[in-house]
Amino acid sequence: MRYIILLLILSISALSIGQRYDLKDFFIYDAALEQKVDSVFDGMSDTSRIGQMIIPAAGRLGKSQEHLNALIEKNYIGGILLLNGTKEGFITMVADFNSLNEKNGGLPMLYSADAEPSLIGYKIKNCTPVKKANLMVDREEVKKFALSICNDLKDIGINYNYAPVVDMSPNEVISFRAFGNDPDTAQVWSKIFIEVTQNEGIVATAKHFPGHGYVIGDTHKQLVYIDGEMKEVKNYIPLINSGVLSIMVAHIAIKNNSKYNTNDLPSTVSRNIVTGLLKNEMKFKGLVVTDAMNMGGVASIPNCELKAAQAGCDLILMPVNEEKALFDILGEVEKNNSFKQQVYASVRKIIRLKICLGLI
Description:
The protein contains 13 helices and 13 strands. The chain is an alpha/beta fold. The strands form five sheets. A four-stranded parallel sheet has the order 2-3-5-7, with no helix packed on it. Strands 8-10-12 form a three-stranded parallel sheet. A two-stranded parallel sheet has the order 1-13. The protein is globular. The two termini are about 35 Å apart.
């Protein structure tokens, strides 16, 4: 009898090892998936683990291909944002990066883009034209254009989209990038965009948490503030409940709010906002990604990438210096066990996502 039970266990284990997962499995507990994550994680050094959190950019507004090749050869990064180029150029670039990464034994890459309806034509030229978000008239158009964007991203090899924008539109920086200025429309249309994207096997990202619509100024240039109530946080609740996999935190400070003041620091480096509000209170279990860390609203803060990781961010987007960011985080991991376990949890989430994307 024991022999038969052992054979059954071995048979189930063998089936589990060959099992394929998809994005719908990310939030579902599965013992075999947990085991697979642990197996990948256990085979990595702390340096390569933390490297999974680092996402530099390639393209006209990113780092050179030579610079990124050097990072890939050291297993110092977990993905690449494709930022300003052509569809054809990015197809070639992804193939080149993948070839080098496979040769060096790195985990497959997360390839991301700012493929919002309002920006994709600017960020990735020669994609299928789509309407700007603020010009869409109904849910069917949102579905149609979300699917069109996904088809172009899949052609390139992009598996992670920093879209949709769920902000309101009054802010001059957001304006045409938002679905409008009605919270119900923003929530429902964002939910549709996310569902289409993730059903197509691409990670969707709700942004810019905790809300960029009612601020004055541009976080690309300077730190901006939410003054008092965070009116747009409620837009994220139905999106979290329906399974959005990624949320981007903006370089926005909070003032005149006794519970959520960030003391003149951006939300990106505020543990009160990232861990306290988003992860604990709102119970978001997906990937928290920073907005670009070379932006004016955060880049002047010493060790800002480490502080973003300490705040609870899982993915550090576009550090000014990728190696410094990695080794700043590594140094803190080596002397702070609580932070070490937090970073390990982030890395396990990234590995889990890559398995659910079918990359591992």
